[in-house]
């Protein structure tokens, strides 16, 4: 795997990123540490976390993932310098009062959250600090339509950038990024940064997979022209694109109860739990089998090889899953197979958008 440069920054990352939101909920600390070590051994030195992890989010596990990673750094002196570490400040509450007081995300909240993340991570600096979701109202996490009547924004994008700039100046953050963003948001963050001499976003972390290619409905052009990289999350669509739900469905008696989408109602209520999402996933999974591939290999190879994707974030529960995801690197997707994928999308569109 060759290093990838994020946006117009000088930050280089591995083309596969280890997502860690299962650590502290479905993955205990001992197993998580083994996975972190194995990922680094295999060249995956880009790791992503967030203050609100683990997931599903709840007060009891708030900050648990960062704590587990911090303990790994403590137990492995000298390894921190080998890792590109990304974390995120949570946006407005979304029903999580344990994240912070109030429903918004102020400039002071950004600074306070970063300081708390640094303590849990037991590090002096976060290489990529991202806004987990926009402070303003946007259609995200399965909501399709923008509604100006729902706007509750209190902190301007410039104020957010200035808070992030202060963290960069203080040496606590090296680069900044966004997540779950829209074309408007990316444009504004870049425009204001360039106009006022503030840090420029290097990346946007958004969902991107076979059943959600909404990135290609405008964000791909926006970010290509502005020099902002995509970090693709949920490449396996919360397991739908592994084929393990093809026969049982996600709530059937034979569905794997240990998996996130089967075991947690809060996840099923989102875009991945829609009946249309499973219908589409089954089509792509069968396409993979028709071409002699596992469903997971096709889904991952799709992200690994698309020009739109800088780095693909993989999330795992077991060491076996980690190895499978990494072994999919190098799998080729032919032009004919891409045309078949596009033909399915033409009919079924993006049901997990």
Structure description:
There is one protein chain. The protein has 353 residues and is an alpha/beta fold. It has one domain: NADP-dependent oxidoreductase domain (TIM Barrel). Helices cover 38% and strands 14% of the residues. It contains twelve helices and ten strands. An eight-stranded parallel β-barrel has the order 3-4-5-6-7-8-9-10, surrounded by six helices. It has a two-stranded antiparallel ribbon with strand order 1-2. Helix 3 (107-121) links the parallel strand 5 (84-89) and strand 6. The longest helix has 16 residues, at 275-290. The model has no long low-confidence stretch (mean pLDDT 95).
Keywords for this structure?
alpha/beta, eight-stranded parallel beta barrel, about 350 residues, TIM Barrel, about 40% helix, two-stranded antiparallel ribbon, 12 helices, single chain
Q: Looking at CATH, which topology would you report?
A: TIM Barrel
Question: Structural class, please?
Answer: alpha/beta
Order of helices and strands: EEEHEHEHEHEHEHEHHHHEHH
Biggest β-sheet description: 8 strands, parallel, barrel
**Spatial shape:** globular
Number of helices: 12
CATH superfamily: NADP-dependent oxidoreductase domain
**Number of DSSP E strands:** 10
The CATH architecture term is Alpha-Beta Barrel
């Amino acid at each position: 795997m060759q290093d990838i440069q994020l946006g117009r920054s000088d930050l280089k990352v591995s083309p596969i990123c280890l997502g860690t939101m299962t650590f502290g909920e479905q993955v205990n600390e001992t197993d998580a540490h083994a996975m972190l070590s194995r990922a680094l051994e295999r060249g995956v030195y880009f790791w992503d976390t967030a203050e609100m992890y683990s997931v599903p989010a709840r007060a009891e596990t708030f900050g648990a993932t960062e704590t587990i990673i911090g303990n790994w750094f403590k137990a492995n002196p000298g390894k921190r310098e080998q890792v590109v570490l990304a974390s995120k400040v949570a946006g407005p509450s979304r029903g999580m009062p344990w994240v912070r007081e109030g429903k918004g995300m102020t400039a002071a909240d950004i600074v306070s959250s970063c300081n708390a993340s640094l303590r849990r991570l037991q590090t002096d600096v976060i290489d990529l600090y991202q806004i987990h979701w926009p402070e303003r109202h946007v259609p995200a996490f399965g909501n399709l339509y923008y509604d100006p009547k729902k706007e509750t924004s209190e902190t301007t994008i410039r104020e957010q950038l200035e808070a992030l700039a202060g963290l960069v100046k203080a040496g606590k953050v090296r680069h900044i990024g966004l997540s779950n963003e829209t074309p408007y948001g990316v444009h504004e963050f870049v425009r204001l940064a360039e106009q006022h001499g503030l840090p420029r976003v290097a990346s946007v972390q958004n969902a991107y997979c076979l059943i959600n290619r909404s990135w290609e409905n405008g964000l791909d052009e926006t970010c290509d022209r502005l020099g902002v990289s995509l970090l693709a999350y949920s490449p396996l669509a919360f397991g739908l694109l592994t084929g393990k739900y093809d026969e049982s469905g996600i709530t059937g008696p034979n569905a794997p109860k240990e998996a996130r989408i089967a075991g947690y109602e809060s996840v099923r209520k989102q875009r991945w739990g829609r009946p249309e999402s499973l219908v589409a996933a089954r089509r792509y999974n069968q396409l993979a089998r028709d071409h002699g591939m596992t469903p997971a290999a096709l889904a991952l190879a799709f992200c690994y090889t698309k020009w739109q994707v800088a780095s693909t974030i993989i999330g795992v529960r077991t060491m076996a899953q980690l190895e499978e995801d990494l072994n999919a690197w190098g799998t080729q997707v032919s032009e004919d197979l891409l045309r078949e994928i596009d033909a399915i999308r033409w009919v079924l569109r993006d049901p997990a958008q």
